[in-house]
């Protein structure tokens, strides 16, 4: 992930030359430098994680760790992990910044016993879906209702705007990095739809703020999915469909097939509510991507190029919506197209 967060503020040495001459010279030098660096600026390959080969099942590696280590046991969690302060809470877990062997880690504790089933489902999903798309599992203890994961200091996507607003992150608050985040997001959905545990639907996302709270921003400005407590299985060959919860859903963030179809005069009845498939995730992609693109210079230009694919995501008929892979391909094309035009436009200016 080099080239993602570097700053380009290296100063040039000054010499004693006549002011006008010096100005001209340095302008020429700057132009030449700029010209040479354009490719590097715009076409730097994103997301190359050196040595990111994953550990065997049941093992983890994080940060600067050289070797893979087995998931921590109950005993190790109890004696080696020191809880520091609470950093988050949802319906199922209370999350604490903690310390393990001088490393920062995240300790999640079940917050209410009624939610134990969701907690255990989330743990099964974390175990089975370990990959670059999912937060790294470090250990767990079912007896104590605890899960230990890698800590990400930038927190969830809920605080993306506040994070990018900080002066030290101004250099990554660009349409390029924001489109890259949208690509990460769609890659995660694509992974869940073709996961080692089958086609999984991201159910814990009935509104935008809730959805954002399930994903973490890494220090390298990429995304991982963190909360996997509601990932039911779709199996098209056996005709298995899903429902996200047992309550009536409202609003236009959720897909139209998730709404009660029988009108206001018929009271909601979960038994009569039809089930649906992974295309509900596709319906939500334009809203999440648009949030990720934000309102910086170039955001609207990207939105304009994504208009058609996003319109297709909002098809009333689920089967007519594109796949996550289709969307990802389009995002990549748009990123390359806009990079190429920026390079040639800037070259013309010089
Ligand atoms: N590994 C982590 N690093 C940093 N913050 C985290 C981490 N895990 C969770 N959090 C914070 O805690 C919040 C709640 O976590 P989550 O797993 O979504 O709990 P719940 O299942 O109750 O919704 C997240 O939205 C995020 O702000
Ligand atoms: C970020 O990338 C560097 C290498 O570029 C890697 O060593 C580090 O583990 C990554 N950090 C995270 C949080 O992914
Ligand atoms: C970003 O910073 C500006 C100025 O410092 C402030 O007015 C604005 O409210 C901030 N936005 C967020 C989302 O924190
Ligand atoms: C889906 O269903 C088919 C037919 O019933 C079965 O063979 C297959 O194993 C199922 N796939 C998953 C991931 O459960
Ligand atoms: Mg959550």
Model description:
The chain crosses the membrane at residues 21-43. One of its GO terms (molecular function) is ATP binding. It is a single chain. The chain has helices spanning 19-43, 74-80, 116-128, 160-165, 175-193, 208-212, 279-293, 299-305, 307-313, 324-349; strands spanning 59-60, 69-70, 81-89, 93-100, 103-110, 137-141, 146-150, 199-200, 215-217, 223-225, 233-234. The chain is α+β, with helices and mostly antiparallel strands. The protein has two domains: 50-151, Phosphorylase Kinase, domain 1; 152-339, Transferase(Phosphotransferase) domain 1 (Transferase(Phosphotransferase), domain 1). A five-stranded antiparallel beta sheet has the order 3-4-5-7-6. A hairpin with an 8-residue loop joins strand 1 (59-60) and strand 2.
Structural class based on helices, strands and sheet pairing: alpha+beta
The counted number of beta strands is 11
Biggest sheet overview: 5 strands, antiparallel
Envelope shape? globular
* CATH homologous superfamily label of the largest domain: Transferase(Phosphotransferase) domain 1
- The CATH topology assignment of the largest domain is Transferase(Phosphotransferase), domain 1
- Enumerate the strands of the largest sheet in spatial order, edge to edge or round the barrel: 3-4-5-7-6
The bound ligands are: adenosine-5'-diphosphate, 2-acetamido-2-deoxy-beta-D-glucopyranose, magnesium ion
Query: Over all CA atoms, what is the radius of gyration?
Result: 23 Å
CATH arch. level architecture of the largest domain:
Orthogonal Bundle
- Give the averaged pLDDT, no decimals: 90
Number of helices: 10
Beta-strand content: 5-15%
Distance between the termini: 29 Å
Uncertain runs: 1-15, 41-51
* The first-level CATH class name of the largest domain: Mainly Alpha
Helix amount, in percent? 25-40%
Q: Please indicate the count of domains.
A: 2
Could you spell the SSE succession in H and E letters?
A: HEEHEEEHEEHHEHEEEHHHH
């Amino acid at each position: 992930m080099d080239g993602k967060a570097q700053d380009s503020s290296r100063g040039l040495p000054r010499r004693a030359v006549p002011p006008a001459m010096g100005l001209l010279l340095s302008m020429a030098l700057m132009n030449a430098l700029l010209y040479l660096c354009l490719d590097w600026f715009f076409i730097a390959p994103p997301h190359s994680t050196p040595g990111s080969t994953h550990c065997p099942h049941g093992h983890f590696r994080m940060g600067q760790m050289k070797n893979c280590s087995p998931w921590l046991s109950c005993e190790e969690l109890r004696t080696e992990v020191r809880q520091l302060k609470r950093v988050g809470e949802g319906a199922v877990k209370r999350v604490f910044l903690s310390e393990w062997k001088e490393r920062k880690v995240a300790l999640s504790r079940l917050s209410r016993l009624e939610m134990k089933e969701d907690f255990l489902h989330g743990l099964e999903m974390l175990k089975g879906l370990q990959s670059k798309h999912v937060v790294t599992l470090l250990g767990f203890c079912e007896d104590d209702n605890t899960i230990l994961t890698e800590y990400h200091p930038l927190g969830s996507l809920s605080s993306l705007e506040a994070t990018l607003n900080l002066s030290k992150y101004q250099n990554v608050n660009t349409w390029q990095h924001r489109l890259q985040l949208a690509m990460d997001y769609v890659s995660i959905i694509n992974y869940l739809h073709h996961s080692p545990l089958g086609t999984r639907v991201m159910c814990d996302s009935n509104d935008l703020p809730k959805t954002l709270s399930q994903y973490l921003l890494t220090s390298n400005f990429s995304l991982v999915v963190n909360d996997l407590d509601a990932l039911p299985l779709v199996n098209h060959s056996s005709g298995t469909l899903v429902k996200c919860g047992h309550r009536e859903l409202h609003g236009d963030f959720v897909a139209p097939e998730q709404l009660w179809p029988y009108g206001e005069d018929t009271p909601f009845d979960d038994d009569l509510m039809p089930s649906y498939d992974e295309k509900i995730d596709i319906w939500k992609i334009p809203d999440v991507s648009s949030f990720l693109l934000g309102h910086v210079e170039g955001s609207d230009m990207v939105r304009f190029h994504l208009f058609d694919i996003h319109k297709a995501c909002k098809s009333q008929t689920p089967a007519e919506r594109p796949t996550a892979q289709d969307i990802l391909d389009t995002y990549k094309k748009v990123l390359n197209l806009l990079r190429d035009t920026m390079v040639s436009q800037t070259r013309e200016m010089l």
